Amino acid sequence: MLNLNQVRCFIAVATELSFRRAAESLHMSQPPLTRQIQLLEQHLNILLFNRDKRNVTLTTAGKAFYQEALELMEHIHQIEQYTKRVASGEVGSVAVGFVANAFYQFLPALLSLLKEKFPFINISLQQSTTFQQVESVINHQIDLGIVRVVPDNAALDSALCVDETFVAAVPRHHPLAMRKNLPLADFDNQPVIMYSVAWKPIYDLLTQAFQAEGAKPNYVQYESNTVNILSLVNVGFGTAIVPESASTFKFDNVVYIPLASMAKLSNRMYFIWRKDNENEAFHLVKKAVLQHIAEK
User: Which domain holds residue 125?
Assistant: First the structure.
């Protein structure tokens, strides 16, 4: 097997074509350098240099070995750098779960940031419910979850990542579409497309908010997908209350209007992760996302 120190000595002599200058570049005396070259030639059973009192030149085999040796040392350097990046977390993979609303604005912007900061970390995504994500984080199936409710579990840690208001989504030709803002009381007896109980945090939040303002909407349809809700609004099937980030979806016949009672309504999402997660790449990502949130 090749001795890497001997290969380094060979490259120095082949580059300088002088044992003296090569020894100086390696910060060693000439006799040990000469000995390393001799040992390498003995190992390979070939002559690498033509030597006389004045000149040192590479043999044909030496020239071929020189090119291969340079590529070998470059590859070894790459291995060293790659291993260091893995150890520091700069290379690796992080699995992220998320609820659907996170992908409207927040998560794409976050992914763009992470791709720029950590080009060698692969971020894999998995859309699932809050309950499914909690189970996945606990069971080490995902590193980071974006959920609607912080679970009561001592093994997990969390941080608020999204806190946005809601807006009304109204058909363009609906009487309410001309209003600059809408109190929830104005939805009394109005056809409303509501989130299904499967989206319990939002379902509970909106139904309780309507009750608090004395409004009794006519729930004409229940849906578990914001895009489905907005598609129904677009064809005039009813009105809806959706997270503000959903207003990025542009429909020809949908008008988004701020709520007069928006201070009472907040769509919150949270990061969750295991406290004992040992994934170095995850720790780099977590630090970056928490800093990103703090700066917003």
Answer: 92-163+268-295
